[in-house]
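Hey everyone, long-time lurker, first post.

I ran two proteins through the pipeline my lab uses and got sequence/structure pairs for each. Pasting them in order. The first:
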Amino acid sequence: MHRSVKLLVSVRSSKEALAAFEGGADIIDVKDPSNGSLGLAQSCVIEQITDLIHARSPNMMISAALGEVSESTVSNAVNLSAVSHLTLVKSGLSGLLSLPTPWQKAWHRFREMTSLRHSKTQWVAVAYADERRSDSPSVMDVLEEGHRIGCPFLLIDTFQKDGTSLLDWVSQRNLDRIRRRTRDLGMKLALAGQITTGLLPQVLCCDPDIVAVRGSVCADGHRGKTVTRSRVRSFAAILGQQQRQWQRMES
């Protein structure tokens, strides 16, 4: 691990976005956690946050969660067409295996329906580690389809936020296999799913490009509460420390 692993912090308001930015986040991710793992925030909230952050750091990466493909509506897509200056967008694939049509087609229709103005906005391929209870395609299937359609990132997350973490649902061996495949395909890997500072040594073993958090940087460690600058700063410091330790071990 000879590069810096970026810290992504998910926020739901301009206040939280500012706290994440000042705390040292590398990527600001906009979502509404009350609407699920990839809950869609109102388009006005997304625009407020992008304007706020880019006024301070014009080149900072900003991503947004667009909800679950299975719950999408045309009205959502129309509202999102007004959103600009996002670096990345992502949608969840839960519930798609029960549909009569292939899940790939449902994802394709969603991407077509969600037309974003900014030509440089790219899609993230999102796979749920708890794929059985989310009725979603496997991580490897999402990885391969994501590469086929040109997604530069694969994000592995957990669908249900019930206290279990990413590592409760996917083994270190499988994560290593996924990492090798993303590297072969030239894709970057982001890991999420109730990642705490205590899990960082195991997470960093997988050599991710991004570690994504929310609950760990919220008051009392609860994702439904508010992101605080002090908790972001603390998490970022520990992440940096853990990376330096790995680099010393590898050298």
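...and the second, right after it:
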Amino acid sequence: MKRIGLMLLAIISVQIICGQTVKYSTAWFGPNANPVPEFTDARIPAKTTVSLMGDYYFGYGDQTENGYAKIEIPLLPERVSLKIWSTVLEHYQTTPEIMQSRGSNALSGSEGGDIYVQTRIRLLKEQNHLPDIILNSTLKTASAKTYASRRYFDTPGYYFDLEVGKSIFTKSKFISEIRGVANVGFMCWETTGSRQDDAPMYGGKIILGNPNWKLENTLSGYWGWIHTYAPLSPTGDYGDAPLVYATKFTIKCGRIDYFAQYQYGITDFPYHQIRAGISFSISKLTPKF
């Protein structure tokens, strides 16, 4: 019995040690595991809005294609909304080197993604010298089915953030509006052994355009504490401080917006992203008051 007990204790100890080497960060998982959160133009729509898109991630030994769906339902038009989004289906192909470095059990495969649920509340409406201010509260579920492939975390997370936006309107027909948006917040997700990684969020966006088109340029990221104070490797490459740059172009054609986006991972997000999609409003799905 004593030998059996010692063997069980050894096995448990090895599992704990191995589990602690797993890096719950964007640098060591798939691109949809815990990406830098997107933020809007600091406005809440008047009608229910649906967005459908496809993503292609490439570079650094990981190629990923996935669908993506998002719906925002204004509970109080332009004041309060409920937003839900998810990666619909992800197909991936990695190199043997990436599979080994992540501790993954698969070179390729297909998986469904996590579901995000967000409430949005307008705290202040833009007027004169005052900006729009939106408070977002977001929950990330651990709804992905597998963890061993290192595509998604097997833990939940959440974040709170403020979007602050202000517009300058010009007399030009080509660029009739210049809008600046700032984003600040706090993000948290569970890692090994119920330990939390906490990260301040930040971002800035410039939007140029007119009623027919707009161009967005965004720089955003978050800064987790583990890579700074508790690195899990000799080099300290925990990878939980991603910074990304994205440029997005949107054309409005009637009731449908068509858009294309390119995103580049500057630090701790080893992917290039190309996204294309459509967005449209549905009056029948908008609550009536």
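Reply from user beta_strand_b:
Welcome! Quick read of the second one: The mean pLDDT is 89. The chain has one domain: 23-285.
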